[in-house]
Amino acid sequence: MLLIRCPICAMDRPESEFHHAGAAHVDRPADPAAASDAEWAGYLYLRDNPKGVIAERWRHVHGCGRFFNALRHTVSDRLLATYPSGTPRPEITA
Amino acid sequence: MSNFRLPSGGRIDRSRTLNFRFDGQAFTGHPGDTLATALLASGVHLMGRSFKYHRPRGPIAIGAEEPNALVAIGTGARHTPNLRATQVELYDGLLATSQNRFPSLAFDLGAASGLAAPLLGAGFYYKTFFGPGNAWHRLYEPAIRHAAGLGTVPTLPDPDVYTQRHAHCEVLVVGAGIAGLAAALAASESGQRVVLVDEQAECGGFLLAEPHASIEGLPAGQWLARTLATLQARDNVTILPRTTAFGYFAQNYVGLAQRLTDHLAAPPPGLARERLWKLRAGRVVLAAGAIERPLVFSGNDRPRIMLAGAGRALLNRWAVKPGRRVVIAGADDAMYAAARDLAAAGVEIAAIADLRPQAGCDTAGLPVRPATAITGSIGRLRVSAADLRAVAGGGTERIACDLVLMAGGWTPSLHLFSQARGKLSFDAARQMYLPGEAPEGLVSAGACRGLSGLAACLADGYAAGDGRRSGVAVSGEIVPDGGVTGLLPGSGPRKAFVDFQNDVQASDITQAVREGFRSIEHVKRYTTTGMATDQGKTSNINALAIAAGALGRSMPQVGLTTFRMPYTPTTFGSFAGLARGDLFDPLRPTPTHGWAKARGAVFEPVGQWQRAHHFPHPGEPEADAVARECRAVRDRAGLFDGSTLGKIEVVGPDAALFLERMYTNSWAKLAPGRCRYGVMLSEAGFMMDDGVIGRLAPDRFHVTTTSSGAAAVLNHMEDYLQTEFTDLRCWLTSVTEQWAVITVQGPRARDIVAPLTEGVDFSAFPHMSVALCQVAGVPARLFRVSFTGELGFEINVPTGHGQAVWEAVWQAGQQFGLEPYGTEAMHVLRAEKGYIVVGQDSDGTQTPDDLGLGWAIGKTKPDFVGKRSLTRPDMLAADRPQLVGLLTENPATVLEEGLQLVDTAQPGLGTPSIGHVTSAYASPALGRTIAMGLLRGGRGRIGQTVHIALPHGSTPATVCKPVFYDPEGARLDG
């Protein structure tokens, strides 16, 4: 049971209050009709699966209900940072 | 029966005598005894038969690491198998039975398998029990499982209550031996919340068996009493005895199993049997201690061959003489501590075989044989003599005895440290693994990090508790020092047991290496060493040493097996807690649940909802009831509880624009007071949900979703609103629970609903309208919609009024022949009309067009979620599975949903599937069966015949359009 800091509530809360919501910083193309089939398939399906730091989305579904972003290390399973959706990815590599 | 109880001493309460039975025979003991110590005091050392060879076994240890003395406690529903007799606290009336023996413990027919032992080595079942056919499953495995094994599980439901508790503290200390006590003492001085747990009934660890040492000027026992009194007096300290820290999870989240009643003869009613603590600690101090290692020599498993520390604890803590004439063997000074105490209690020390040329402590007056190994033993139901031989070689001397104590050195308990993902480091000089780099907020103290002796552990405990090292004064103890791993010199590998509980011998491990296994993880699985319920607490290091020796490699090169939770077996009851029976999963009854129940409705679970499936008359078969309900709707009117529909209120100046983007349809021009059927796609273009959406006001929509999709749809909407369409001003509120939905469907629906309604002009209230009004005097949202093809209304009223309005409608409907109908009739009626159920007729890989819903796509809309995906090449392929109707040649055949469609009347192995059946019912309106299915290129095959594969053969069906009844929609107006 991870402790996750909700950047909206500014509290450490147990993992069971949250839902994982996939990769972060995957922007929906502003004009989907202009995207080629390959570009659109990439947007839909192609995701990184790094050994190391990954940026992912979580939702504080049993709390404030907000989606936010988190940096997690896929080896240690440690959450290194959480930050609101729409804000830039922090510079953390550890 | 001999009496091995000393006349005085020990931490037992001699003022009270407890009666208990073991295999039916009556015994007595005292409070403070475990089952094992009470039996040993009564001269019973034979407590079990081994797993595979049925060899007679007695306890070698006094705690959680005990591999042999597994017993069953209690009877009937409270029968608990595989408990360690060394951990079972004695109470008056306790009933214990031995396991894995027939007909009796002393005379076990299964022991004949010992004669076949050479055939039963490592991996014997992989090699011996080949074919024919499935003989392994039919014949060999059941026979082996019968012959080998542990206890039997109870077959009755568990009558006890288990609770769970969430807790937080600044410091958790695991283990209340000297290091843990010191850590708790130091950590609690500053007022931090400290939780101290110990698996035993009494705190103190080895201090409980230490009569000589003096600590900080007090005898060990008095120091312990003073320390516990100090801790108990502090409000910020919680001491939990009988509590096992069984699992260590991320970020100092520790599972604690607290046993509350197992030690009580008559537990107070209402008290839970166990409490599972889910504890989050700021910092954890592991003071888990160390486990003494047995010696590996031929015949090392005979009853009354024990660990030296266990022998000493029996004497000092329980006043039990472990034997009368002892041979002590090993390579650790702990054996001299045992020898000193045993001699003082009148036990004859026959010989002390020290593998080392020189002991590490004073051995004056003891019959020490330096550089000597124990190489064998004899005896039937207990040891009767030990064989000693000089390490350098030469002859063997057989020495009569009734007790052998083994001092192989100590293995630090790294279980929790390793579960916490701490890194282990190997100390080559001492041949032991130690805690290395620790995760944040975790520190090890005392013997579990390789320290020996009370002084070192006390100082380490203080330091772990508050980060300060204070000088400590301890005198009078013999500090354990030394140790040995692997097969002893001069001993044969056969019957030299490494893993007692799984009957793994040294020869099994060397054989596994000979057969090519290189990693300890593979050796473990092939030989099963370390895989029993004790997880190899006493055996893993010896197994590793033997494998490493056979491979000619170092122990770290061979690896260490993974430590997994639970530390000791933990009951399912404690994990389940109160989540059993009715509390296992919340039930969501609808507002009319009681009404339906009173009318004999049969319910079906739909997610957590309980819905009325059909309303049988007394004695009426299900099929007849469903057909009757369907006819009532088609001929007159039916009443249906649609409250489970998901409902989301979308409000705000941009509400219509938001729905434009979330649904395929157009919403901007939908007038207030009108409804539209909406189709929601995932971004990948696949049908995700559907439902009717009513516009209540320019800035307010009442969105309905499928019953099962409500939460996912809201999440999907919130996701886009919060992260993609952040420019839109609108708000989403789940109102599923706020509105009861009373559905009236059928040609007489208007006749029933209109007189109850105020504020609606029914002459100007066409199909797909919505109005704010009053129904039966209650504020309502009235929808004119249909999921049956008949004239229909859905009356939404606040849930608290649901039953009252339902009953008003019911009364009003009596003169028109209104009947209640359930979910099965609802399904039949919708299938007759070809209305799909998302998730039944679709499976998440269908576009709207695949399901015949291409008309619902707003072609001129610039964008909506999923739009771009609809023009990906695969989505436009001609042979996509498409929804069609299927009419079986035999009009009485009701197909099973999920059956495969094929092109041939004689499908065989490998015949390709061209689709499958998604819905199938008997249709009263058509007087025959109907079905829908997804068929490759289906709309181009209307009129053709396909075959439905059955377990034996097939049945033909004609492909048709998926609308079976009233295709013109004439009945929607009643």
Describe the structure.
The complex is a heterodimer of chains A (94) and B (974). By secondary structure, chain A is mainly β. Chain A is built from one helix and six strands, in the order βββαβββ. In chain A, the strands form two sheets. Chain A has a four-stranded antiparallel beta sheet with strand order 3-4-5-6, with no helix packed on it. In chain B, the strands form 13 sheets. In chain B, strands 8, 9, 12, 13, 14, 15 and 28 form a seven-stranded mixed beta sheet that branches. In chain B, strands 42-43-44-45-41-35-46 form a seven-stranded mixed beta sheet. Chain B is 20% helix and 28% strand. The A-B interface holds A 1-3, 19, 21, 28-29, 31-33, 35, 37, 40-41, 44, 57, 59, 61, 65-67, 76-77, 85-86 and B 249-251, 253, 278, 280, 421, 683-684, 715, 718-719, 722-724, 726, 862-863, 867-869, 872-873.
Structure at a glance:
The complex is a heterodimer of chains A (94) and B (974). With 94 residues, chain A is mainly beta. Chain A is built from one helix and six strands.
Low-pLDDT regions of chain B: none
Radius of gyration of chain A: 14 Å
Order of helices and strands of chain A: EEEHEEE
Instruction: Name the chain pair with the biggest interface and residue counts per chain.
Output: A-B, 25 and 23 residues
Helix content of chain B: 10-25%
Poorly predicted segments of chain A? none
**Structural class computed from helices and strand pairing of chain A:** mainly beta
What is the helix tally of chain B? 21
